Amino acid sequence: MFFTLLLNCRLNNAFQRSILIDITLIEECRGGNFNNFRKLVELTSPFAYSVAFRMLGDEDQVKDIVQETMVTIWQKLKKIKSAEVYRTWVYRIVVNKCYDQMRKRKRNPEFVADEHTWALISNRISEGPSAALENKETSKIISILTERLSPKQKAVFILSDLEEMSNDEISEITGISKSAVKANLHYARKSISEKVEKYL
Amino acid sequence: MKRKSIKLVLALILMLIVSCNEPETVVTDYIHPDGSVTRKIEMKSIEGDVKKRFNVSDIQVPFDSTWTIKDSVEINQKGDTTWIKRAVKQFKNIDEINLAYKTDSGANKEISRQAGFKKSFKWFNTEFRFSERINKKLSFGYPVKDFLNDEELVYFYSPENMQEAKKNGPDSLKFKALIDSVKHKTDTWTMKNLISEWIGEFSKLTEGKAGNDMAIKSLKSREDEFVKIVEKNDKQLDSLWKNGILLKEFIGEANALKYKTEADSAISIVSNNIWINFKEYSVRIVMPGKLIGTNGFIDSTQVLLWPVKSDFFLTEPYEMWAESKIPNRWAWIVSGLFLVFVLSGVIMRVIKKG
Amino acid sequence: MKTESEKYNKVLNILRKSKPVLESTEDIEREVIKRIARVHRSGLNLSEVIDYLFGWVYIGWVRRSLISASIVLVLVFVYQQGVILKRIDFLSRQTIVIDRENISTPANEIEKMLLVYKNSGRRFPSKTITISEKQMKEILESVNELQTKYKDLENLIDGDPELKKMIEKKLIENNHTKINL
After folding, report:
1. CA of C56: which chain B residue's CA is closest?
2. Domain boundaries, chain A
3. Could you report the per-residue pLDDT of B77-123, keeping only the tens digit for each?
4. Is some CB atom of chain B closer than 8 A to the CB atom of C157?
5. Are the C-beta atoms of residues B31 and B285 closer than 8 Å to each other?
């Protein structure tokens, strides 16, 4: 009998998006089982990568963040209350590391939006919902759309509208209150939709 | 029953009990943080006759063979000789001092004294309080502060040398008027105390036997009247009392005859309360740490001084107290480290959040 | 309006669908193991120590309790010191008696301090006072006056040899008769 932990709270596409991590695997890693830790890295890295990439957009930086996250998980896994809080805890580590990185490169925006870029985006979008974007394109678009947002607002937007998490989870991950989450989200959506309206 | 005439009692009260060759005594208490006390007695005498010079029974505080004694002599420029007797004893705690007071057989054995010591830990500082208290003699007396104003009270409680200096100093004229006023008022105070005490004792003795006119309230309301009677007959007090004339004037002939015995007993009790053997001395206290409060006189070396005279504890307890503090260094360090630790944590959090 | 939200939702849907994909986890695993081994070798690092010492900051109730305790400690300290300073100040105004001499209540703080200094064996009581410029000027004026008078006196004595002899004799006498107790 093994216990599985369902890591996605949204009902839409829940099965597609759920990441199953065996709770006994986590408990064994907490007990110091290094062999099983490799398995944990294999299972955790994808969703850590997803969030970090959407936040930062730079492949190398993101890989670095994911590696650091896994090292931190190994060092501090014993200190978490239980295996049930594992997912939220990992997201918290990733988001905090992304904040640190974003602070460092505050004044050097990754991408600058111009007419040509917007046209490209518009074309891609008009190809329809079936056309998934490549990593580079995704990061460009997110970066441009969230250019004017603070790190916190960006994190809230990504976790809510792209990662499809609940406000409770976002509040736990970012450490801000639910009302602050709502306010940040509202501002982020407003800013992005203004840009979308103006340029697309 | 020993019977003292009013006049004699009055005379004794009004007279300063000073004997020309009595040693001048200073008792110094060195208070230690653990509550132990080193008591030093210094007696100075100019008495030529060695037999009369220092008697153990004349010492103003409890004294016995456990004291360490040292004698010395001083000769001044004029060639006058002063003999000095110094004695030291270590008391482990206040209880030993109080026990010594209880079993005192010295010059001041008739007065009731106790010492007190309190040590309070107040985190940053440890505060010490030492006190020596002499209980009052009269039960129905008036506080002297009801008769003297603030300036007069300061003079009243001052040490002899301060009083002398004021008398002979640059403001001697001003102080002469003050001194006269103090003398006059203390005479009145003494008289009122004597009469009030007698009324109190007399009422106690006649309680239950006499009518309401002998009750303390009734007699007290006529106290001023009695004072006037006594003052009017100042020169013949003794004989007038013996003949019962004074008493008749005060409480009426019938009562005077009926309660003569009680009246005489009351006078006897009053004279026993007032007529106590007491030798004046000075008390000095040296407190541990820094001085923060006292009701004594402070000299230049931060040693505290009180004169002890019989007037001071006639109608009120005479308390000599001093307070001092010693900083608790380790508490300061721990508190400082704690504050630095908390502040660092808060600053780090603010930086990380920002 | 409808068109706007449609555009926005379209963008969002595409972004949502286009989840970033991690090509290979093996590289990540390899690097992670390398780093963990490196950390083990290097032992405890500074950030770990700091995290260990200051981990409490992230626990709300602990942080709030410690901050409250600090504030209370500071308030207690300020209150205690205030009370003590008040008592010492009151004490300093009490009349001073010095050995066998005495002084009547001095006119001002400086007079008090000077008299104490003079009679206490050149020791100041443990207290500081501030004096105004005016008081400073008064002191300096009196010092200058004394210096002038002293010079005049010196000249007088030098001018009269008999007087000089008498004064010298007196000074020697005074030195001899000082008794050390």
Report:
1. B345
2. 1-106, 110-200
3. 777 888 888 899 999 999 999 999 999 888 888 889 999 999 999 99
4. no
5. yes
